[in-house]
Amino acid sequence: MFDIGFSELLLVGLVALVVFGPERLPGAARTAGLWIGRLKRSFSAIKAEVEREMGADEIRRQLHNEQILQMERELQQSIQPAATPPADTPAAPPPAPEAGPTTPPPATPEPHRQP
Description:
mainly alpha; 68% helix; membrane; TatB; transmembrane helix
């Protein structure tokens, strides 16, 4: 991640020894270790929470898509039987044309429109 080698760690240790001195260096190292541990734990907790929320969003999206698909299936099933007659009852034949002379229907006057 940071690409820190052994020589860099040795240099940081020597600088810390000079700055803090041999009496306070173990306490400073312990405090630094505690803070680094707390930061790691808080970052991992945040990461886990974000992943959990992303998973919850994905699950919600999948459930919503499944509900939409189910409603579409129900709609197709309700439309399909209404569009086709049942197979067990025969379809009624079309009415026969009436016999006799055919006369055009009487003309109806158009309603009066005002300008």
